[in-house]
């Protein structure tokens, strides 16, 4: 995986998660990749080495398990692959 | 009597080079003689590229190509032959605020981050990004936008930030990326751009 992406069921969830995760890891907001196209338009991008910390922080937050999803992204352009984590 | 270039029996690319030589000497009409169809096709392409009309006469084993300077002006030919403008050189983004659109500030700030994320990921990059008024809060206070601006700047995009505005908001010493600039430079970049996208 080149980087990880979290998608959210709602825009509010995405904005809230960004605040929670900022304290844990250097995350960026990005538009949801066309390859995923699920959930709302805002996604959060994180580095592979931060996966465990990010997962733990979201599990401890007020977001429920079904309100977000993790993807592993490899490659870019036409070779981009998004695998659910 | 028209100028004759006898290129019969000459291997590729000699006939083309000989025809070019005749053009360079200033001949506006001349005839090239060759003996194979490949040379004919190459010479036709040369004529098209250089603004010449060409007609082909077949005489036994010999092809005679009559070149004649076309009607086109030399500026036209230059425009046709010049390479496409470099990606991004030709447009600019003007950012006059720190969020995209009206409405919720938090949503607008995230839309702005996603805008620069997408811009920095793409291949068609602007020649310049221009920041004024509250827009100057982005290259100073927003770490994610500043990161994307650094990536854009590394591939040649100019980042110009209004110095008066930085001073007004007390952010002059917090600029993370870009050049402190002024109204003259910013207006010039807008005038030079083929299009300006305002946020």
List keywords for this structure.
heterodimer, A: 85 residues, alpha+beta, Alpha-Beta Plaits, 2 helices, globular, B: 199 residues, alpha/beta, five-stranded parallel β-sheet, four-stranded mixed β-sheet, 8 helices, 9 strands, 41% helix
List the helices and strands and how they pair.
The complex is a heterodimer of chains A (85) and B (199).
Chain A: E1 3-8, H1 11-22, E2 28-31, E3 42-46, H2 51-59, E4 68-74, E5 81-84
Chain B: E1 3-6, H1 14-24, E2 29-34, H2 37-50, E3 52-59, E4 62-69, H3 74-81, E5 91-95, H4 105-121, E6 128-131, H5 138-141, H6 143-154, E7 158-162, H7 163-168, E8 179-181, H8 183-192, E9 195-198
Parallel strand pairs in B: 1-2, 5-6, 5-9, 6-7, 7-8
Antiparallel strand pairs in B: 2-4, 3-4
Read across the widest sheet of chain B, the strand sequence of neighbours is: 8-7-6-5-9
Principal-axis shape of chain B: rod-shaped
Contiguous helical run count of chain A:
2
As a percent range, the share of strand residues of chain B is 15-25%
Q: What is the annotated CATH architecture of chain A?
A: 2-Layer Sandwich
* Series of H and E elements of chain B: EHEHEEHEHEHHEHEHE
**Secondary-structure element order of chain A, as H and E?**
EHEEHEE
Q: How do the strands line up in the largest sheet of chain A?
A: 2-3-1-4-5
| Gyration radius of chain B, rounded | 28 Å
Q: Round the Cα radius of gyration of chain A to an integer and report it.
A: 12 Å
- Estimate the helix proportion of chain A, in percent: 10-25%
How would you classify the helix and strand content of chain B by structural class? alpha/beta
Largest interface: A-B, 11 and 10 residues
What's the N-to-C terminus distance of chain A? 11 Å
CATH class annotation of chain A: Alpha Beta
Uncertain residue segments of chain A: none
- The total beta strand count of chain A reads 5
């Amino acid at each position: 995986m080149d980087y990880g992406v979290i998608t959210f069921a709602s825009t509010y969830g995405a904005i809230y998660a960004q605040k929670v995760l900022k304290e844990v890891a250097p995350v960026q907001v990005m538009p949801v990749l066309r390859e995923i196209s699920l959930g709302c338009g805002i996604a959060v991008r994180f580095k592979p080495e931060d996966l465990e910390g990010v997962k733990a922080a979201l599990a401890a937050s007020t977001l429920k398990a079904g309100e977000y999803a993790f993807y592993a992204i490899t490659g870019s352009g036409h070779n981009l692959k998004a695998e659910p984590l | 009597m028209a100028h004759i270039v006898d290129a019969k029996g000459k291997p590729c690319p000699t006939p083309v080079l000989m025809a070019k030589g005749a053009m360079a000497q200033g001949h506006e009409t001349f005839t090239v003689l060759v003996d194979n169809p490949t040379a004919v096709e190459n010479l036709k392409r040369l004529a098209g590229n250089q603004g010449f009309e060409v007609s082909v006469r077949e005489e036994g084993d010999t092809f005679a190509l009559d070149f004649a300077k076309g009607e086109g002006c030399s500026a036209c030919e230059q425009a046709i032959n010049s390479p496409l403008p470099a990606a991004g050189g030709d447009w600019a983004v003007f950012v006059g605020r720190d969020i995209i659109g009206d409405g919720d500030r938090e949503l607008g700030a995230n839309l702005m981050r996603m805008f620069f994320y997408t811009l920095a990921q793409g291949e068609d990059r602007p020649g310049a990004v221009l920041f004024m008024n509250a827009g100057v809060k982005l290259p100073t206070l927003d770490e994610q936008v500043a990161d994307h601006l650094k990536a854009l700047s590394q591939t040649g995009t100019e980042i110009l930030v209004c110095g008066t505005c930085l001073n007004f908001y007390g952010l002059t010493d917090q600029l993370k990326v870009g050049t402190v600039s002024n109204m003259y430079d910013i207006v010039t970049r807008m005038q030079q751009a083929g299009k300006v996208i305002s946020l």
